[in-house]
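agent: user wants the structure for 3-deoxy-D-manno-octulosonic acid transferase from Acetobacter fabarum. delegating to structure tool.
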Amino acid sequence: MAVPRVWKSASGLFRSIVVGAIRAYLGFALRTTRWTFKIDPQSYLYLTSQEGRTAVVAFWHEVLPLTPALWWWAERQNPAVHLRVLVSRNSDGRVIADVVAPWRIWSIAGSSNTRGKSKGGAAAMLRMRASLLHGCLVAITPDGPCGPRRQTQQGAEALARLVGKPVIPMGASCRAIRLKSWDKMFFPLPFGRGVFVSGAPLWPTPDCQMQDPAFNLQTHMNNLMEQAQVEQQHPAAGHIALRPQVTCPSHIWKGVGALLAPALPLYLRWRQSKGKEVAGRVREKMGFATCPRPSGKLLWFHAASVGEALSILPLVQACLRQNGHITVLVTTGTVTASTIVAQRFAHDRVVHQFMPLDVPSWCQRFLNHWAPQAAVFTESELWPTVLGACHARNLPVVLVNGRMSASSFRFWQRVPGVAQRMLAPFAWVSARTEEDAQRLRSLGANSQLSPGDLKTAAPPLPVDAQVLADLQAVIGERPVFVAASTHAGEEEVIARAAHIIRQTYPNLLSIIVPRHPERGADIASRLNSAPRRAQNALPTERDAFWVCDTLGELGLFFRLGDCAFIGNSLPVCPGGGHNPFEPARLGCAVATGPRVHNFEEVYQALHECVQVVQDEQSLAAWVVRMLSCPDARAVLAQQAQAVATVNATLPDDLAHQILELIW
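agent: tool returned. relaying tokens verbatim.
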């Protein structure tokens, strides 16, 4: 068995060398050629996929080596253009496919069935139809793969008629020598001049003829070839040099990641020692999978932390509900987010992994193993290396709940080229707000859906009904104030506010839910050894505070409380706020500190439904008012609940758009 393996390895190496050499020479010749494009105005709209237009692009087999220049030109006009080219299933066709694949020209293998032998024509026709219906251009050589030369077969016209799309006939010529092949194929030479000429779009009719009765496709294409040769021999002004679109957003960032790669495993082990990584799963952040890839189509969602993970929960559920055959891979960056995924995304078709760090080889390893059909990034998760790897594979990438803060916008404006190369190839972007959409658009995200905030569409936080009933029995009639997602420094303010409130309501129970549960022990020690939920300790009548340092139970605590304060918002911490829709959906009256820039639009939507407090005095005054006026509290809670549930159909709408990408 050793000899065949060695031979297979040597054969594969030789083939890789041949493919690489062909690609290097062809790329050099095409890049050094000065090109002219004579494109019909109507065909221009299709060749550059303006407003999602798609078409069948037809050119003779002999000009196949020149066509990458046409795609480079099209990508220059619209970086979001997607390309598929029909190649034969034989070895020559596979070599062609491998040569052009790094230029984001992806192949569909198959050709007409002849002599009773299946050559994949029917399957290729179905794939080309799906490609055209989902926003891709499809290129066909009507005389391929074996001729006769410059005589059209029925494939191009049949495909156009099947999908109701036009055929764009093309002609091309450049400084080249002709090979002694059946098609007299062009072999381009460097430093010459070349030209592409297109005809007007030809629309199919039910009787299998093109609309123009004077000419058929074959005549159009032959005339265009003659015109291209004349144009190439008598060059006019306006020549341009072309090169493949750069799929790597930042070579500097990619290089830094590669240089740091040897030291990063030590960094990850250090984080594990601090409890910030999960033992046994650290290698996932190096791109090593800890479970096999499920068979079938895989949809990849990435959510960095808890907030992002919760925001995509209804979207993931909608995708699973609309397509019963896909598997969803959810990646996160933090341990707390992974716990939320384990608790809230429990489904036999959901797999969780940690996102690899943005190191080139680690990202490639991750993508090689999981091979997703589409990738969904969340909010502001824009990592140049992994996005570049996705774009290089022509993997459809979308951004949901896209967020671009003013500070992030200023940063990306300093590196506009990196931002443009990251965002322009996105299949589409769905921003949270119109302001986010405008910022993302100015950075290069041209294909956008209507804005909408997924955090306004999430279902109410879940609860175990029996646990809720048991705790309600323990607490009894005591008034309950919940301080949720608190950060360092805020607990002291809340403790002072609780002291003021107890002067009016002596039996008040204050539930403190720190954003980071590992801080629970320290918080409890500073609150007279308050009982901790993580230790299964329940509050007694003598306890003024209950520290709930667990994950995934906010739905329980908001249901226990009469009113809720949302942390990470007081002046004593850096601030930014957290999602107020979570308590609002459960009928809580809500207060926050003034620092809510991470959720500014959400708080603007809630407007007068949320009270802004500055310190312990204003916080205490608000809680006393809410406890003293239950009718007024109920009105505010109902108003906030109505705002927090306004986008109920958004997850289903976005899920439909995402599933369209994985046909």
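agent: one observation worth passing along. Residues 19-233 form a domain with the Glycerol-3-phosphate (1)-acyltransferase fold (CATH 3.40.1130.10).
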